[in-house]
Amino acid sequence: TESVSKHPHSVILLDEIEKAHHEVFNILLQIMDHGTLTDNNGRKADFRNVVFIMTTNAGAQDMSRASMGFNTQDHTKDGTEIIKKTFTPEFRNRLDAIIHFNPLSIDVIKKVVDKFLVELQAQLDEKKVQLEVSDEAINWIADKGYDKTMGARPMQRLIQEKIKKPLAEEILFGKFSSEGGIAYIDEEEGELVLNLEYLTKEKDKVT
């Protein structure tokens, strides 16, 4: 309530709402019914200008499953049925809209990869480390880091394990710690490979 009191015009994101405790749904019902919420200290917060956005993976697996035959089938109804079973009518009837999202296209997934790599490069700039990522490596990350049910959520963990972690070790304990250099990221035989080139032109390979 304190945050909403300070910022009455807010957007609140509740990710994977299906995992929330049932008391959370009771609170949301109260907010949607009365537009206010009173906390344990008796402070009342006004939620009338607050927008709630809730995400859920309920029904995602059914919607993303492959179609039978040559025709593309719309599995939206299957996902809707799962949502009906997951959330009570009292809760669903108070929502303004339920929006179904299609699986990401390969072009969009590659843009997500680029976003993560741009953020990583910004972190590496102060260490004088330059990333050079091949198209094959981007395709590998896009393929391994995307799941039809979970979307691009696994990608951050994949980049953390395959790129950030070995680079961090090199920056902390290797020659990147003082000299900087270039990290070439490529795909070889189905695996992501890092070739590290120091300013001294000495070159090592990390897999």
Automatic annotation (TrEMBL):
GO molecular function, one term: ATP binding
SMART domains: ClpB_D2-small
Keyword Aminoacyl-tRNA synthetase: no
Entry GO CC: cytoplasm
Keywords for this protein: ATP-binding, Nucleotide-binding
Record domain Clp ATPase C-terminal: where: 104-194
GO BP of this protein: cellular response to heat
Coiled coil: none
Name of the protein in question: Clp ATPase C-terminal domain-containing protein
SUPFAM superfamilies: P-loop containing nucleoside triphosphate hydrolases
